[in-house]
Amino acid sequence: MSSFREMFRLRRVIHIRTVMPGLVTGIHAFSKSRARQTWMAGTSPAMTRNKRLASRSRLALIVVALFGLSIGTASAAEPGHFGYGTVPTAEQIAGWDIDARGEDGVGLPPGKGDVTTGEKVFAEQCAGCHGTFGEGEGRFPKLAGGQGTLKDDRPELTVGSYWPFAPTLWDYINRAMPMPTPHTLSADDVYALTAYILNLNNIVPNEFVADRDSLPKVRMPNRDNFIWTDPRPDTAAKPCMSACVDPAAVTISSTAEGKDLTPRTTGPLDDMQPK
Amino acid sequence: MDGGVNWQTAQLHEPILSKALTRFSLPWRWDGKPALLESRVIDETGYVQPTIVQLREKRGTNSVYHNNAIQTWQVKADGSVFDVQLS
To the nearest whole angstrom, how far is the Cα of A110 from the nearest Cα of chain B? Predict the structure, then answer.
């Protein structure tokens, strides 16, 4: 067990380290020469073919691909543009165009998977963190249960208690899971996992088969509790610049001091500290 | 510097793009006294970033996601910094 924990910690650290440089690159990409390096990684012909490509390159390409669309033909001298990059090919765009839409499942690929297969894949790929029945190991997220807890002090947001659409469960697993090795599961395996997780939450029967037609028809329990028109901006603060509040009324109501909110003795985050 | 009593306009740095993180800076010389640092953004529509109190008045304490409230950092006289909330 301890060796498993060790292995997991290592994987998590690798995951964080591969993602973080990508994010940083995303922020700074267009003012630093590093952007060019990023673009080179992003345009590798293996990009769309190799599903195991590291997260870092994939993240970097998102930034470049989106940006590339708008500046692809811009000249260096044009104001507001940076003068580099090329128009992405249809194949490159297709590699990134992987989203599946919630309400109607548009974007879901061919393939299918049933609950029994999902149970097997889940045991191999997911249970280490999410628990055999989706109960969540340690601080990792629960996937099942939690119904009726959304108004509690500590609501449990799970697929059953919270998630509004079944197609986006497929999408989420497909794009982000397993956390250390995303994009390594086949479409069929992702369908099977979706079926299993829905079944764990008693949303679909044991004989349910998930595919592009069946998932949009699944009625998720919490769907109607979402507000589907964005109410923002819902606050109306004034752009005051001076003497905005009474200085005597400025008091600290809550502080992180002494709360030990970032554990230093347990959990995977420890390994992020320099040895 | 004073927990939202007085504000100064900061300098934005390129690239300034919609829906993207944008760097800003404001020169400040710390005089060694306790301070409460905050930053507040006003977007191109005039929307002013709310305080955590204003946000809670609208959304309660359990809205979980989309917390876009102003963050406060307490600087103590010894130079230590803590994440705090103001009432």
Answer: 32
